[in-house]
């Protein structure tokens, strides 16, 4: 049998289907490591489908995948104010205000592109925890996509409309939680010119200097997808709260 590093050096594990026998040893090693590391009573999904997300995110390096997995479970259990209720109804106002979108097309690396429009967030109506819950809902949905597991995601923070009221809501610790799992490009009022350095013109909304669908269309399309995923998000919330 190939050693783990030798098998990974072939560069093909991430391209294999979920049911490939070649990934079984990696799943077993990650599962055994998680069972040893996790504290008793910690909610944990250790199914093959779930574990594959973390293996692909770390190119099947089981040690790195284990660290990522443990951090994920601990965060979910230690931050119930954000993660315990992932129902779309808890963030419906933000979504309907066109605050957030996932662009229809991926970038040249196959990454999903997320957009957050800070100016559409009214801090008098919605807390920073609700804003972060939107991110968590989206992350939980798109990480189920095999291509996203392989190629990751990036986020664009549209800071037009940023005010001190927003800054007061986002503490350093909360900002760290948001940025820890995302590749973030921050842009101010000149973002139209700078964004095309990172993303193809064809996938960017018109408002950001591209030729793709408008940002409002992208927001509405993604909101509809989240609402259609309500049952799935409800099951995830129940699983987490039962831990």
TrEMBL record:
Pfam assignment, any one: CRAL_TRIO_N
InterPro entries xrefs: CRAL-TRIO_dom, CRAL-TRIO_dom_sf, CRAL/TRIO_N_dom, CRAL/TRIO_N_dom_sf
One Gene Ontology molecular-function label: vitamin E binding
GO BP annotation list: vitamin E metabolic process; vitamin transport
Stretches assigned to the CRAL-TRIO domain: 79-243
UniProt entry keywords in alphabetical sequence: Lipid-binding
GO cellular component: late endosome; membrane
Name the UniProt record assigns to this protein: TTPA protein
Native source species: Polypterus senegalus
């Amino acid at each position: 049998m190939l050693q783990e590093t030798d098998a990974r050096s072939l560069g093909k594990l991430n391209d294999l289907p979920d049911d490939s026998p070649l990934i079984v040893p990696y799943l077993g090693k990650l599962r055994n490591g998680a069972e040893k590391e996790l504290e008793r009573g910690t909610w944990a999904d250790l199914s093959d489908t779930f574990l594959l997300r973390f293996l692909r995110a770390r190119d099947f390096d089981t040690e790195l995948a284990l660290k990522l997995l443990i951090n994920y479970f601990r965060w979910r259990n230690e931050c119930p104010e954000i993660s315990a209720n992932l129902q779309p109804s808890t963030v419906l106002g933000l979504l309907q205000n066109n605050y957030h979108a996932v662009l229809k097309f991926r970038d040249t690396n196959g990454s999903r592109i997320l957009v957050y429009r800070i100016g559409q967030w009214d801090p008098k109506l919605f807390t920073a925890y609700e804003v972060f819950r939107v991110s968590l809902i989206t992350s939980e949905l798109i990480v189920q996509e095999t291509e996203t597991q392989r190629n990751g995601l990036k986020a664009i923070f549209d800071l037009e409309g940023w005010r001190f009221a927003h800054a007061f809501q986002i503490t350093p610790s909360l900002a760290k939680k948001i940025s820890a799992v995302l590749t973030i490009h921050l842009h101010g009022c000149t973002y139209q010119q700078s964004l095309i350095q990172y993303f193809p013109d064809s996938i960017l909304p018109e408002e950001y200097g591209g030729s793709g669908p408008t940002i409002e269309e992208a927001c509405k399309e993604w909101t509809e997808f989240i609402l259609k995923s309500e049952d799935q998000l409800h099951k995830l919330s129940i699983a987490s709260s039962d831990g």
